[in-house]
Amino acid sequence: MERRLLSRNQVEGREDDNIETIRKRFKVFLESSLPVINYYDAKGKVRKIDAARPIEEVFESVKGIFAPKNEKVILVFALVLSSHILMLNEEDFHLREPNQRKELLWEWTAVAAFDEDEE
Description:
Helices cover about 50% and strands about 15% of the residues. The protein contains five helices and three strands; from the N terminus they run αααββααβ. Belongs to the adenylate kinase family.
């Protein structure tokens, strides 16, 4: 994975993809993001999607996990090797243009957390 991210620097000109930054982001992910995912996973409320596939396939997989509109759905996108967590509800996600949705899913591991207890 480190090699892939380092090569992204050469292809995309991403100066922040150096070995030190990559390792720091991974450490932050393990300490900050992963516990949130594990919390919902322990409650049986996690749906995992392989985001290493083409964007279109990932997008279709994410669309497939959404429940009927009458159920509360929260999507948590945890960027691999990052400390950032982006939370969107279903309506926010669907308000985006299709190309924006696909870009949003690039290199993201998607976790859908369904919480019937909250109003």
